[in-house]
From TrEMBL:
GO terms for molecular function: heme binding; L-lactate dehydrogenase (cytochrome) activity; metal ion binding. GO terms for biological process: lactate metabolic process. Residues 1-368 form the FMN hydroxy acid dehydrogenase domain. The chain holds residues 102 to 472 of 501 of the full protein. Keywords: Flavoprotein, FMN, Heme, Iron, Metal-binding, Mitochondrion, Oxidoreductase. Its EC number is 1.1.2.3. In the C-terminal section; belongs to the FMN-dependent alpha-hydroxy acid dehydrogenase family. In the N-terminal section; belongs to the cytochrome b5 family. It catalyses: (S)-lactate + 2 Fe(III)-[cytochrome c] = 2 Fe(II)-[cytochrome c] + pyruvate + 2 H(+). It is found in: Mitochondrion intermembrane space. Homotetramer. One of its GO terms (cellular component) is mitochondrial intermembrane space. Its cofactor is heme b; FMN. It comes from the Eukaryota. This is L-lactate dehydrogenase (cytochrome).
Length: 371
C-alpha cells in the first residue's frame, strides 16, 4: 500500500511481514520462548481505562515535554534496536533522519549496523541522541565506547541490565546467521561469533554476565553522562538505582526478548511509583529520577497511560523497524506523524491541554494491582 493508506502503527507490522526477508522478520519480530511476555506487553495497556475531563477549552493542546532535560516534541523516544541494516540498507540512519524532522530523541544501540560515528554524523546540529550500552567483558573497550560517546555529544547512557545472556528467540535461532549479513558488528567482532544460532546470539557473545551493582561506581567515574538502567523489573531495583544516584530507570523486559513471563513495563510502573513514594517520598514524574517504560507501545493512548502513571516518556521499538523496513525514512516519518495526530486528538478527548494535565486521576487502574 502507499504510505497514505497506513493508518496506525499496527499496519506497518502487517506490511513488514510481507516485504521483509524471512531472516530479518525472524530477528525483529521474535521474542523469548513462548513469547508470552511480548503478547502481554501490549495487552497490559488494554486493562487501563481513561477517566476524561469534559468542558475544558482544548482549542490548544501541547504534548511536548523534556526528557533528561532535553526537549522532545512528544513524550516518547526511539529506543535501541540492533541490526538496522537487516531491514533496510540505510539501517539506523533512517531513524536518525526521521527523529530530526520530528524533534524526537533516538537511542543508538551498541549493536547498530551503521557505525556509531555514522549515526552521530547523520544527526542535525543540536539533535539529541542517547546511547544504549552493552557492557563488554573487556572494560577497556566499554570505557572507550562510553568516553567516545560523551565526546561526541551523547546526552544519556542507557546501560542494558536485562541481558546477561541472550534470551532464546527460537524463530530467530532457526535462521543461520551468515557472514554476508550486513552488520559491521558481525564482520568485525568475529572472535567467538557463533553463526549457527541466529543473529541475536551471533553478535552478543561479548556481553559480560558478571556485570553487577558494584560496577556502577566505575561508570560514574568514567563519564558525566546521566546513567540510566534499561531493563528494571521490580521496585527493589528501581529503589537501588535511585539510592545510587542514577538518573533513572527504564521499566522494560526488552520487548519480551529476554525472560519470558517478565511482567509488562506499564504494570511494573504502577508498583515502582507506589513503592518509591512509600519508601523515599518521591512523586512522579520526577526531574531528578526519571521513569521510562517500553514494550508494546503502539498508540498515543498507550503513551498517555504511562505518563498518567508517572513515566517521563516511553520507548518505542519494533514499529519503527517495521516502518523503515517497508518504506525507508518516509515510513518512520509517517509513523511519527501518526503518533503526533493521535496525541492531538486524544489530548482533546481527555481534556488535557499539556502533559502536566495528564495526572493519575485520568486513568482507572483497578485491573492492575500494585505488589
Ligand atoms: C531490541 N531491544 C534491544 N535492547 C537493548 O537494550 N539493546 C539492543 O541491542 C536491543 N536490540 C533489539 C532488537 C530488536 C529487533 C528489538 C525488537 C528489540 C529492546 C528494545 O530496546 C525495547 O526494549 C523493545 O523493543 C520495546 O518493545 P517494542 O516497542 O519493540 O514492543
Amino acid at each position: 500500500p502507499v504510505l497514505d493508506e497506513i493508518l496506525n502503527l499496527h499496519d506497518f507490522e502487517a506490511i513488514a511481514k510481507q516485504v521483509m526477508t524471512e531472516k530479518a522478520w525472524a530477528y525483529y519480530s521474535s521474542a523469548a520462548d513462548d513469547e508470552i511476555t511480548t503478547r502481554e506487553n501490549h495487552a497490559a495497556y488494554h486493562r487501563i481505562w481513561f477517566r476524561p475531563r469534559i468542558l475544558i477549552d482544548v482549542t490548544k493542546v501541547d504534548w511536548s515535554t523534556t526528557i533528561l532535560g532535553h526537549r522532545s516534541s512528544m513524550p516518547l523516544y526511539i529506543t535501541a534496536t540492533a541490526l538496522g541494516k537487516l531491514g533496510h540498507p540505510d539501517g539506523e540512519i533512517n531513524l536518525t533522519k526521521a527523529a530530526a524532522k520530528h524533534g524526537v530523541i533516538q537511542m543508538i544501540p551498541t549493536l547498530a549496523s551503521c557505525s556509531f560515528d555514522q549515526i552521530v554524523d547523520a544527526a542535525q546540529p543540536g539533535q539529541v541522541q542517547f546511547l544504549q550500552l552493552y557492557v563488554n567483558k573487556d572494560r577497556n573497550i566499554t570505557k572507550r565506547i562510553v568516553q567516545h560517546a560523551e565526546k561526541r555529544g551523547i546526552k544519556g547512557l542507557f546501560i542494558t541490565v536485562d541481558a546477561p545472556q541472550l534470551g532464546r528467540r527460537e524463530k530467530d535461532m532457526r535462521m543461520k546467521f551468515t557472514a554476508e549479513d550486513p552488520s559491521e558488528v558481525a564482520k568485525s567482532g568475529s572472535d567467538g561469533v557463533d553463526r549457527s544460532q541466529g543473529a541475536a546470539r551471533a553478535i552478543s557473545s561479548f556481553i559480560d554476565p558478571g556485570l553487577q551493582w558494584s560496577d556502577l561506581d566505575w561508570f560514574k567515574s568514567i563519564t558525566k553522562m546521566p546513567l540510566i538502567l534499561k531493563g528494571v523489573q521490580r521496585w527493589e531495583d528501581a529503589l537501588k538505582a535511585y539510592d545510587l544516584g542514577l538518573a533513572g530507570v527504564v521499566l522494560s523486559n526488552h520487548g519480551g526478548r529476554q525472560l519470558d513471563f517478565a511482567r509488562s513495563g506499564i504494570e511494573v510502573l504502577v508498583e515502582v511509583v507506589a513503592k518509591l513514594k512509600e519508601k523515599r517520598g518521591l512523586t512522579f514524574p520526577n526531574e531528578k529520577f526519571q521513569l521510562f517504560v517500553d514494550g508494546g507501545v503502539r498508540r498515543a493512548t498507550d503513551v498517555i497511560k504511562a505518563i498518567a502513571l508517572g513515566a517521563t516518556a516511553v520507548g518505542v521499538g519494533r514499529p519503527f523497524l517495521y516502518a523503515f523496513s517497508s518504506y525507508g525514512v518516509e515510513g518512520v516519518d509517517r509513523a511519527l506523524s501518526i503518533l503526533h495526530d493521535e496525541f492531538e486528538m486524544n489530548m482533546r478527548l481527555l481534556g488535557a491541554n499539556t502533559i502536566k494535565d495528564i495526572t493519575p486521576d485520568m486513568v482507572d487502574v483497578s485491573n492492575i494491582s500494585a505488589h
